[in-house]
Amino acid sequence: MDDSSLIEKCRAGDQRAQRELFEKYAPKMLGVCLRYAKNKEQAEDVLQEGFIKVYTKLEHYQSKGSLEGWIRRIMVNTSLDHIRKNVKFQGDRSVEDVGFKLEQNTFNSDQLFEEDLLKLINAMPPGYKVVFNMFAIEGYSHKEIAEELGVSENTSKSQYSRARAYLKAKLEELGIEREG
């Protein structure tokens, strides 16, 4: 079933369509939630909570942009809500820029697997992890991150810089070299 039909049936309360929507997008969205959560169980809780929001807010979806992108934004916001409830944001403000960028094909793929990178990201202090995920992976601007987290833009930039430095140090400890 295409997304338009799925949306209409979900809006009408069709439980099979809701299940199909969940099965179609849950695997990708679990990946989103895992980047913010402490563990898989917490990510699964956030995923469930996020899909409840998807179903209740589906009437507001206006088919502008992809449905997947709209669902992803709900999952990120649900993850952030969960963090706000459970973790105090670490607002460190000063750090030098180490100039490290995580981009596709930055690392030798034989040396680093996605699961390993996810473990490194999940081991970051909470403030670093949230900003890193939002900026490097989700594509939020520092201004958007600052507004979403209730911090200054400089705090967002600082946390991202610290996250990059943390990740770079961990990769160097593992002997992972950058390509290029």
Put the structure in a nutshell.
Helix content is 66%, strand content 0%. With 180 residues, the chain is mainly alpha-helical.
Topology:
Blueprint: H1 3-11, H2 15-36, H3 40-57, H4 67-86, H5 114-122, H6 126-137, H7 142-149, H8 153-173
Written description of the protein model:
There is one protein chain. The protein is mainly α and 180 residues long. It is 66% helix and 0% strand. Helix 2 crosses helix 3.
Shape: elongated
Could you say which structural class the secondary elements and strand pairing correspond to?
A: mainly alpha
Number of strands: 0
Helix content: 55-70%
Order of helices and strands: HHHHHHHH
Poorly predicted tracts of residues: 88-112
Mean pLDDT: 80
Number of helices: 8
**Radius of gyration (Å):** 18 Å
Give me some keywords for this one.
mainly alpha; single chain; 0% strand; 180 residues
